Amino acid sequence: KGLLSEIDVRWMVISESVDDRTEEEVPKIMKSRYDSVSTYISTRPADNYFAKMNDIDLHVDEGVYKRLREASIDHRLARHVSHLFIRDPLVIYSGRLHQLEDARESDHFENIQSTNWQSMRFKPPPA
After folding, report:
1. Which of 10, 53, 66, 109 is the most buried (most CB within 10 A)?
2. Are 34 and 120 in contact (CB under 8 A)?
3. In whole angstroms, how far apart are CA 75 and each of 8, 42, 44, 80?
């Protein structure tokens, strides 16, 4: 413990400092942007161990989830990505908003992903 604080680690302080949830969102969105990972994605077969790793009630953007599943993205990855989209991006570069080719560049996805600071992050290969 420090001399100026009764806190052993700074994780909760940082988490609370970037918590931009509204009062209405708090019951649905259980965590701040800066928190522990909410989903684990893996090619591991579904079993009890894996189920325990993904046992929280996860709020997802249903429209994003449906679109990903219709594009043949598996349930685990679709769940993870659609959870990222429950929040608005913190930064949007107006010069890049309509100029990107999503088939070749991942800037739009990285913008959403990079504004959700979790203890572990999905790192897709470069576009």
Report:
1. 109
2. no
3. 38, 11, 13, 9
Quote the pLDDT of residue 5: 67
Q: Where residue 61 falls among pLDDT bands split at 50, 70, 90?
A: very high
Distance of CA 78 to the CA centre of its chain: 11
Is 81 exposed, middle or buried (CB count within 10 Å of its CB: 0-12, 13-18, 19+)?
buried
**Contacting residues for 44 by C-beta, under 8 A, at least 6 apart:** 50
Residue 114: per-residue pLDDT: 72
Collect all residues with Cβ–Cβ distance below 8 Å to 117 and sequence separation of at least 6. Answer: 18, 33, 34, 35
Could you tell me the pLDDT band of residue 62, with boundaries at 50, 70 and 90?
A: very high
pLDDT tens-digit profile of 15-42?
A: 788 788 888 888 888 888 777 778 888 7
- DSSP string spanning 71-121? TT--HHHHHHHHHHTTS--S---HHHHTT--TTT--HHHHHHHHTS-BSS-
